[in-house]
Amino acid sequence: MVDVTCNGSEFTLLCAIIKIFFGYFAFNMKPVFKRVLVVVLLFAVAMTLRYFYLVNKNEALPIINPADIKSKEFISDSLAQIKSNHIIRDFQLINQNGDTITQLVFKNKIYIANFFFASCKTICPNMNGGLQTVYDEYQGDSSVCFISHSSLPLEDSVPVLKAYSARFGAQLPQWQFVTGNKKEIYDLARNFYLMAETKNEGLEYDFIHSRYLALIDTHKRIRGYYDGTSTDDVSKLIEDIAMLKKENIK
Questions:
Q1: Closest Cα partner for 41 from 11, 21, 13?
Q2: CATH assignment, 66-249
Q3: Cα-trace Rg, the chain
Q4: pLDDT number for residue 104
Q5: Fewer CB within 10 A of the end CB, N or C, for the chain?
Q6: What is the mean pLDDT of the chain?
Q7: In angstroms, rounded to a whole number, what is the distance separating the alpha carbons of residues 118 and 157?
Q8: H or E, element range at 211
Q9: What burial class does residue 86 get, using C-beta atoms within 10 Å of its C-beta: 0-12 exposed, 13-18 middle, 19+ buried?
């Protein structure tokens, strides 16, 4: 009888199956067949160990800093030098209920951020529809929140945001639609979320229009960007949020 020793709870079931297999089939086998069987099973175990190693090795999402952004039109020269410790700064904005909110609403939470304007007829409805899919998946989960910034804050008043948020079934406090000072919102988009081109910065006709969603972790770090109009990206965002939730448990 071939003896198989199992170590590590992660592979207990696999080892038990191997023992049963040997016990049932290998007792009366000729030695040559036993050796072949051992080689085959050792190869299977090696492949299983490699699979678990690769899965565990790649399970963490990247931490994105300005130096990691390849599209340099989104990054100023000074930001491009930052390779670590980039976080979303503190802010003060007004939500669809007319309440002033700050970064404390998102303290110790995973959240998804985007930029839109209510009168947009092109990408914004589709992007926020994609975000609604993510919201529906995590609705009621207090560890996951959403913030949608208006890029036309003068036009998107509190009543406008209230009506617009209702189109997507957004409920406070989990999904915040916000307006406020244009300079502050654009500073957040450009210099912290890294989601707006820099070429028109400071000009009278400066305007932000993006289809992307940013995933922010509990430490206010950027962990991913997703095209809100792409069903594949939206599905990946749902999966990556689940991955971040597991990361917070560890």
A1: 21
A2: 3.40.30.10
A3: 25
A4: 97
A5: C
A6: 84
A7: 10
A8: none
A9: buried
Question: pLDDT-based confidence at 208, cuts 50/70/90?
Answer: confident
- Looking at residue 235, its amino acid is S
What length does the chain have? 250
* Identity of the amino acid at 123: I
Amino acid at 92: Q
Residue 90 one-letter amino acid: D
- Token couple for 183: 């300079």
**pTM of the entire predicted model:** 0.75
**CA 80 and chain centroid, separation:** 22
Phi-psi domain of 89 (left: phi exceeds 0; alpha: psi -120 through 50; beta: other): beta
Residue 171: φ, ψ to 5°: -120, 135
Token reading at 133: 């899919």
Q: Do the Cβ atoms of 26 and 34 come closer than 8 Å?
A: yes
- What DSSP element (H or E) covers 121? none
Q: Look at residue 23 in the predicted model and tell me its pLDDT.
A: 60
Spatial contact of 177 and 96, defined as CB atoms under 8 Å apart? yes
How many Cβ atoms sit within 10 Å of the Cβ of residue 115? 26
- With tokens 């079931």, the residue in question is 13
Domain residue ranges of the chain, discontinuous segments joined by +: 9-57, 66-249
Residues 86-113: what's their mean pLDDT?
A: 98
